[in-house]
Design brief:
single chain, 297 residues, D-Maltodextrin-Binding Protein, domain 2, 44% helix, disordered N terminus
């Protein structure tokens, strides 16, 4: 009698485990298939923003079969478009400090999807040979700070840093390309120059430059680059959200991506060169996120 009971219990246990295994196997990819694969990316005209937007676009289109549109805008418009549902994803949000002004306004209508780059930094950048060591040293020189567009977060931080140190140096706003031209010209002539800089950026590989010391953390502690989305994007595009949750680059990988795009006239060509060299990590980002195909019985 006891043996029969044990056999019955063993059989029941086996069936329970086997049934659980089958159910779990059917749910290896719990994401529901999306009815429509269209996505609107928005980005700014900054080096890493261009790189991350084009990388995202190429992978979403070629690896996940999305129809992707891209919109170039200033950073304030980027946040506004996300909040109003006119854009789906912005893959270059510098937080918690650099873009705090815009994030605080719209945070209830946007979501942080994932950290794309965990070791970003902003500040005043000078050539290695500069006599300037810290931000407060600027009081010794009547140097303007050469910046980028006035709406950029790093420009607000620059003005704040100067005001905090009671410095009279002016902040001049240019495009990023013009700012870089000034930097290159000054380095060739070994002149003093101060620019608003950020890392990752190819200038740290191309030139011998460094950040001015910021002992009071006026530019904030170490920043992170996030992918932001409009509210409730996951409900419509869970595969896209999962992709941006997984997408994370090291400093070497991001600098290499920026470099490939810089040496190619077409950003997408640069992206594809980078993908060839980083197939393993790309495959991890898109694994199980492609559209399911109807099975032929």
């Amino acid at each position: 009698m006891t043996n029969k009971i044990n056999k019955t219990n063993s059989t029941a246990l086996f069936l329970l485990i086997f049934t659980g295994f089958i159910l779990n196997s059917c749910n290896l990819n719990p994401l529901e298939e999306e009815q429509e694969r269209t996505l609107n990316l928005v980005y700014t005209d900054w080096t890493e923003s261009v790189a991350l937007a084009h990388l995202s676009s190429v992978l979403l289109e070629e690896k996940m079969e999305y129809d992707v549109s891209m919109k170039l805008a200033d950073v304030e418009s980027v946040y506004k478009d996300l909040a109003e549902g006119k854009a789906d994803v912005f893959p270059d949000a510098w937080l918690p400090e650099t873009q705090k002004k815009y994030y605080d306004i719209y945070q209830d209508r946007i979501e942080q999807v994932g950290i794309i780059f965990p070791e970003a930094r902003t500040g005043f950048v000078v050539p290695e040979y500069s006599k300037l060591k810290t931000i407060s040293d600027l009081k010794k020189y009547d140097l303007p700070v050469i910046g980028i567009d006035s709406g950029a977060g790093v420009m607000h931080q620059a003005v704040f840093a100067l005001e905090t140190h009671d410095l009279q140096n002016k902040v001049v706003d240019y495009s990023e390309n013009v700012m870089l031209q000034h930097l290159q010209d000054s380095i060739e002539r070994r002149k003093e120059i101060v620019v608003t800089g950020w890392k990752p950026h190819w200038i740290f590989a191309r030139y011998k430059v460094r950040f001015l010391e910021d002992p009071d953390n006026l530019f904030g502690a170490q920043e992170k680059i996030y992918a932001l989305s409009r509210k409730d994007l996951y409900e419509e595009h869970p595969h896209a959200v999962r992709f941006f949750e997984r997408m994370q680059l090291s400093e070497k990988q991001l600098n290499q991506l920026i470099y490939e795009i810089r040496i190619n006239e077409d950003p997408r060509a640069g992206v594809k060169e980078w993908i060839k060299k980083n197939e393993y990590i790309v495959n991890q980002w898109v694994k199980n996120l492609k559209p399911e195909r109807m099975k032929i019985m």
